[in-house]
Amino acid sequence: MSASRPAADDPRLLDQLFGVLADPSRRQLIETLVTHGPRTATELAADYPITRQAIVKHLQVMADAGMVSAERSGRDVRYRATTECLAEAVGWLLRTGPAWDRRLDRLVASPRRRAARE
Amino acid sequence: MSASRPAADDPRLLDQLFGVLADPSRRQLIETLVTHGPRTATELAADYPITRQAIVKHLQVMADAGMVSAERSGRDVRYRATTECLAEAVGWLLRTGPAWDRRLDRLVASPRRRAARE
DNA sequence: GGGATGTGCAACTTAATGGTTGCACTACCA
DNA sequence: TGGTAGTGCAACCATTAAGTTGCACATCCC
């Protein structure tokens, strides 16, 4: 259970968000979940060089940061990426970078929507 | 000398980038440098609850990630935020979030613009 | 020159993190 | 009903990270 998640403007939320993002395994997990849809921990473990337990731990800190949600069906638990919260991270970046406008416009205009997948 | 900084698409770069961002002191340092301009470590230390050495360490990992640059003048070293690299982070986020388009457009349209455009 | 101020380096402590193994428990199904 | 596959929990280990203290070295300036 995600204990008590910090409020939207709590710096702790950004800590968690960026903290999750700082780990390559976790970014990869997000990508996998985003592109291939919800998965169980054991399914994920099959594709990763680390143990199921390690994956579960990752998923738990991600859930704590609000980046995945777990839904149980029968005996297995399926994790789904909830990427909305990433807006918080983007928000900070946009707020902070001073010379953003041009770059950002470029980014937004660019063909970003061939998404992850590769 | 930032040793060997990873190439633009190296996952290690994202590790570093998000890693830097995951620490509240470091985010604050960036904000300070962005809003108040270049500062020396000792100047910064005056406004922070941590020692100069701690600040220097932070600045070093930030420099390693390409987020600040140090320029020496006489005996003191002045650090300046180089926020361009944040684009890399934003890039990943945009590439990854599947339901981004609407939110992003909203974010872009929102009053983020307290920064000098030109 | 010499004192004040600032930087650089290194050793150390403490705590968090990413990972492991091992095992108990729960649900599915032949 | 019993075996199999999935989840949950806990202890443990190794490494890294954030922060400290202490001191040597460089530079400014009276």
Largest interface: A-B, 39 and 40 residues
Count of DSSP H/I helices of chain A = 6
| Morphology of chain A | elongated
Binned, the helix content of chain A reads 55-70%
Strand content of chain A: 5-15%
Question: How does the SSE layout of this entry go?
Answer:
Two copies of one chain form a homodimer.
Chain A: H1 11-21, H2 24-36, E1 39-40, H3 41-47, H4 52-64, E2 68-73, E3 76-81, H5 86-96, H6 100-109
Antiparallel strand pairs in A: 1-3, 2-3
Chain A binds a DNA duplex (30 and 30 nucleotides) through helix 4.
Report on this structure.
The structure is a homodimer of 118-residue chains. With 118 residues, chain A is mostly helical. Helix content of chain A is 55%, strand content 12%. Chain A contains six helices and three strands, in the order ααβααββαα. The first copy, chain A, has helices spanning 11-21, 24-36, 41-47, 52-64, 86-96, 100-109; strands at residues 39-40, 68-73, 76-81. Chain A has a three-stranded antiparallel sheet with strand order 1-3-2. In chain A, strand 2 and strand 3 form a beta hairpin. In chain A, helix 1 (11-21) packs across helix 5 (86-96) and helix 3 crosses helix 4 (52-64). The first copy, chain A, is elongated, with a radius of gyration of 16 Å. Chain A starts with 10 loop residues before the first helix and ends in a 9-residue tail after the last helix. The first copy, chain A, binds a DNA duplex (30 and 30 nucleotides) through residues 23, 25, 40-42, 50-54, 56-58, 61, 72, 74-77.
